[in-house]
Amino acid sequence: MKGLLAISRGIDRLNTRLGLAVGWLILITTLVSAYNAVVRKVFDTSSNGLLEIQWYLFGAVFLLGAAYTLQQNAHVRIDVVASRLTEATRAWIDIVGHLFFTLPLIGFVVVSGWDFAYESFRINEYSADPGGLIRWPAKALIVVGFALLGLQVCSEIIKKIAVIRGHTTPCQ
Questions:
Q1: CA separation, residue 106 to residues 33, 61, 153, 161, 171 (Å)
Q2: Contact yes or no for 127/53 (Cβ under 8 A)
Q3: Which of 19, 42, 45, 160 has its CA 20 to 30 A from that of 168?
Q4: CB under 8 Å, gap of 24 or more: what pairs does 26-34 form?
Q5: DSSP state for residue 29 in the 8-state scheme
Q6: Torsion of CA 58, 64, 67, 71, to 10 degrees
Q7: What is the pLDDT of residues 15-72, one digit of tens each?
């Protein structure tokens, strides 16, 4: 169990660092958005490339921040029900949910997304809009974000097993 918990801590560290770094993308997205708005209103001009980078950054925040959100237990839960259950019962529910719902969905998205992103890269796909951006980086973010989420789900499963086996904290 100690070895698995060490792997779990490593995954948690990776997703914590990435999650905190991704927070800065919110500031960058806001600045790009404000710049776009000012240029559009003051100079009556616009850039599809800047608009698309805004969308890419917004997508990156959600895709790369999802694993951190799960790790911080900041995702949506039905706390009214969960608060009435024992810690071990909640751990079992999480394990079953992750194994039968979350991991299969993540696996599907990663496998499908890989082909989707690779084909975009292979043909050097660009946006159809004039001045638009190359598309494969945005599509690759789908694969990377879901892969990181998959790793975090595995980390959460390890920690839930530790709880069930009687470890007082998942870090033991």
A1: 31, 18, 10, 20, 25
A2: no
A3: 19
A4: 26/61, 28/57, 29/54, 29/57, 29/58, 29/61, 32/57
A5: H
A6: -80
A7: 999 999 999 999 999 999 999 889 888 888 888 888 889 889 999 999 999 999 988 8
Summarised one tens digit per residue, pLDDT across range 100-139 is 999 999 999 999 999 999 999 999 888 888 888 888 999 9
CA–CA separation, 138 vs 73, rounded Å? Answer: 26
User: CA-based angle 112:156:164, to the nearest 5?
Assistant: 135
Q: How far apart are CA 51 and CA 133, in angstroms?
A: 10
The two three-digit tokens of residue 6, written as one number:
């060490």
